[in-house]
Amino acid sequence: MNVLMRNKMTWVKSLVESTILTSIPSCYAYSTHPSHGGDATSTEVVDKDQRLIPTIDFSLLISGSPQQRSLCVQQLGDACRDWGFFYVTNHGVPQKVIQGILQACLSFFNMSEEDKKEFEGTHVMDPIRCGTSFNSSVENVLCWRDFLKVSVHPEFHFPHKPASFSDISLDYCKRVRGVALELIGGISESLGLEKDYIKKALEMESGLNSFIANFYPPCPQPKLAIGLPPHSDRGVLTLLVENQGGGLEIKHNGRWIQPCAPPNSFLVNVADHLEILSNGKYKSVVHRVAVNNKTTRISLAISHGPSAKNVIVPAQELLLKNNQLAAYWGMKYEEYFMLQQSNQLNGKSCLDRIRIG
Asked: 123: phi > 0 → left, psi -120 to 50 → alpha, else beta; which?
């Protein structure tokens, strides 16, 4: 995409609303672009058998009997090892809170471009920024997606518009962080480590948590476009909610699986730094986002990561226990964060840069 086209680029929402589209501009056509080889929007069969995907009953992890909790920890480990993805039910975050935050995100995207421009940011590491695609400054093809990205921990930042958005988000982020840390504690135990091992090793008390709201409007040619191309997430765990299913697709054993979360549940995926810490036992899951031609999909992901200065390496305890050599080089989390955000999304390309051998 040339510089002139980038300079004229606008929000996808504005593009859709400004004209009656019957076809997408060529700069959004992923499946016809040679650099993507058709993988991002491949039309291979998507498995929709939801019974396959593991479900974790969070209430058993925090208040079940010793036997129930032990089984739940084992299920967490199995889900991380075999899938890198699972649902979490009975997590204690009220449905009205989840619906409230999704509605608040919609209200943000419905603001005028002039109002949103105030929060665009100028650098990929800015604590508040919004825009379109993923990183339009380097992408050959644009994603059919608008976004808001905010750093919400260890310091809470947030747009002051629309009214009450910040207050609603602060409450939501605190609740979700509590769920995430309990899950990470269970995952730590499933590896044979102390419950607080991951939390302490990655200095998650001061860990970077990112709030990422995604807006995917209807697309007239959904088979040509992509909401987000195949990629894995940075951090330890990502917890996601959405206003409707049918967009997220995860890759499992070479097949794309389209999850449809149970009511009032979180979709949780293993991210790159849990793969590093576990020395590859728990692998981050590659996922993508498809678009449709009928409805607007909104999703909200909160990424839970290590502290910025933490150098993440495989857990020495696991290497000794399993008589293994480290499979990943160490890198500061802030450097990894910058690497991912400054480039195009492309599978596990960031993680591949620090693999040994």
From this structure: beta
pTM of the model: 0.93
Beta-bridged to residue 241, according to DSSP, are 300
Strand arrangement of the beta sheet that strand 248-252 belongs to: 46-47, 255-257, 248-252, 287-289, 228-231
Kindly write down the DSSP assignment for every residue of 298-314, as one continuous string: EEEEEEE---TT-EE--
The Cα 351–Cα 233 span in angstroms is: 10
Q: What is the mean pLDDT of residues 182-201?
A: 98
52-79: per-residue pLDDT in tens? 799 999 999 999 999 999 999 999 999 9
> Taking the domain 35-352, which CATH number applies?
2.60.120.330
Backbone region of residue 37 per phi and psi (left: phi > 0; alpha: psi in -120 to 50; beta: other values):
left
pLDDT at 21: 84
Q: 171-201: string of b/e by CB count within 10 Å (b at 16+)?
A: ebbebbbebbbbbbbbbbbbbebeeebbbeb
Residue carrying structure tokens 């998650």: 204
Structural contact between residues 158 and 105, judged by C-beta atoms closer than 8 angstroms: no
Cβ neighbours of residue 51 closer than 8 Å, sequence gap 6 or more = none
Q: What is the pLDDT of residues 213-242, one digit of tens each?
A: 999 999 999 999 999 999 999 999 999 999
**Any residues with CB less than 8 A from the CB of 133 and at least 6 apart, and which?**
9, 139, 142, 143, 145
First to last CA, the chain: 35
Kindly give the residue spans of alpha helices, DSSP state H, lying in the chain.
3-8, 12-18, 58-63, 66-82, 95-109, 113-117, 165-190, 197-201, 272-277, 316-322, 333-341, 349-352
Tell me how far apart the alpha carbons of residues 301 and 214 are, in angstroms, rounded to a whole number. 8
Choose between 199 and 121: higher pLDDT.
199
Angstrom distance (rounded) from CA 16 to CA 31: 20
Task: Tell me the residue length of the chain.
Answer: 357
- The CA distance from 158 to 212, in Å, is 12
**Per-residue pLDDT at 327:** 98
User: How many Cβ atoms from other residues are within 10 Å of residue 294's Cβ?
Assistant: 9
